[in-house]
């Protein structure tokens, strides 16, 4: 992940006392365009967290000769969209590698909803994210990143391939384009708004 | 007033991030050296939510002595307005775990207050419809 230091200029944003911060997740397989989406719509900034190495990650992180190493640094895509001095959206890109699944639970806590970015050439990469949000009743939409601007599949075909509920929106986007990225976020918030406010969202746990 | 960018330890200094972290070599300072080796705190701040809002306490008595540089930086950021823990970690260039421990210290010293978001673990939270419509409106206006 590449970060531009010059993009941190807005870190001086000062919010008022009644500040509300809302969290959105950007999920999807490795290399599907999560970083690009966060970059195109928000003030992207680096966020590093150090995590306990789990059993699952040991075959991946070669620990030979560093037997005392018990944590690893995970870099996350993190962006802020300042809507007003009392309202901001925070975007968190979920780590694409399977070995960082444990980060997801923390990210999902209290989130407004999620965007699952998909690439039709590797649709199976988005199955884990779809399963994750479905099983927790977290509202999500699927945004299909059309890198080349050519629609090769219809949203209906993608919804069928992902076995989505009929109420889950699927849209095509180009994450490099700011307006397209904005449309994705607007669709997500509209989808959240369409949820029955009386429903307890943790029923699926 | 001093120019914050003049001091390399200041979080807004262009080199603040690169001074502490090298993409190839990793952290240049042993991270938990800044917390005197602690990964946990007496007040449980190491578990504080990413989106918990941190506020400087306007009524706080000044600290009895100079704060360590990282705590001073975090407090300076909080003094400019409320902000989530994740913002503080990003703005200070410090990893989240370290920031949480240092925020625990600042809370114990009575200098800041942390308001956790109202959310059960691993659930999403739907704010009221009015706020969501304002978000949609705000996004359209960007």
TrEMBL record, chain A:
Pfam families: ATP_bind_1. InterPro entries: Gliding_Motility_GTPase, Gpn, P-loop_NTPase. Keywords: GTP-binding, Hydrolase, Nucleotide-binding. The keyword Hydrolase applies. The keyword Cell inner membrane does not apply. Gene3D superfamilies: P-loop containing nucleotide triphosphate hydrolases. Belongs to the GPN-loop GTPase family. This is ATP/GTP-binding protein. It comes from Streptomyces cavernicola.
From TrEMBL, chain B:
InterPro entries: DUF742, WH-like_DNA-bd_sf. Residues 1-21 are annotated as: Disordered. Residues 1-20 have a biased composition (Basic and acidic residues). This is DUF742 domain-containing protein. It comes from Streptomyces cavernicola.
